Amino acid sequence: MALHFERSEFDARLARLLARMQEEKLDAMLLFAQESMYWLTGYDTFGYCFFQTLVVKADGSLTLLTRSADLRQAQLTSVVTDIRIWVDRVNADPTLDLKDLLSDLDLLGARIGVEYDTHGMTGRIARLLDHQLASFGQIVDASYLVSRLRLTKSPAEISHVERAAALADDALDAALSLVKPGADEADILAAMQGAVFSGGGDYPANEFIIGSGAEALLCRYKSGRRQLDADDQLTLEWAGVDARYHAAMMRTVVVGNPSHRHRELYSACLETLQAIETILMPGHTFGDIFDMHARIMDERGLARHRLNACGYSLGARFSPSWMEHEMFHMGNPQEIQENMSLFVHMIIMDSDSGTAMTLGQTYLTTSQAPKALSRHPLEFLNR
């Protein structure tokens, strides 16, 4: 089978999940997040764009309900052996198939947790599911149960995160070798993605972000390419990806002559990121990280130009986003623990002067100071 982990790793993850289910008094879980299925069983597919769910019972049994197109996908990439197929047909309601399956699994009247907050659960599916199960048992929103288990990484997972970080560094090297006046964004983007693929990596869960000129102030990918001017700015956000595990980075490269504002904003980014490194460790919360970010930025008069979040947890993710649920934003009580892979980004977009500046990298938390996973220094990039 095409598994990235030993069977003992999956067994340990299942044991952790069953323990949490017992604490929550859940007789079963319906996993709709592809990340949850991948983490628990190795199941690797983009078939979550259609209806599918993994039923996890309190006794540890696993049953996957999916389409025929994913039967062999599950057989090859996962440890699941009980795979059921719902049939594509006019006016199909796979939640009815699910209800019948749950009955077969002796779960009538059971307390069942459901992952609602995921891209694998559309509004239509949620309405159909709630309708079918309204009188079947007690349905509980358990959207973040597995997500929180995935926050801390095992040694086997960390090896993939570190490999992903090396691929992210390779992508930056490829970009910097091309950035100069007259360079085409298309060539830069192709080189970055090519470096990840050449290193054995995967597609990212969302597109690499690239923008120059006025578009350097954007935080999302957009279609269309341009060539760099003699004096320009280029914002890049990308991730190395290994076995679906992501390690993200972010940089703004100044082309030609940097403005005073570029250097001023870079100084703010660097000061803030270095200050965050002093508290990115157990004993602090995700909210503490944001508070440090906001305090320093606001003291420098940058409140209007910063964002309302400054990073998030990373792990094995699927489209449309490599971002995990847990983010560095105001009031987040999530505690920082050892062996978390966390992306911290400083993003300043000054629309008044048209100046962009970003600085970000992925860290592995330890019992003390965090470990930066990039080999690149946090230097001002000027080409």
From TrEMBL:
Pfam families: Creatinase_N, Peptidase_M24. Residues 161-366 form the Peptidase M24 domain. It comes from the Bacteria. InterPro entries: Creatin/AminoP/Spt16_N, Creatinase/aminopeptidase-like, Creatinase_N, Pept_M24, Peptidase_M24B. Residues 13-151 form the Creatinase N-terminal domain. This is M24 family metallopeptidase. It comes from Rhizobium lusitanum.
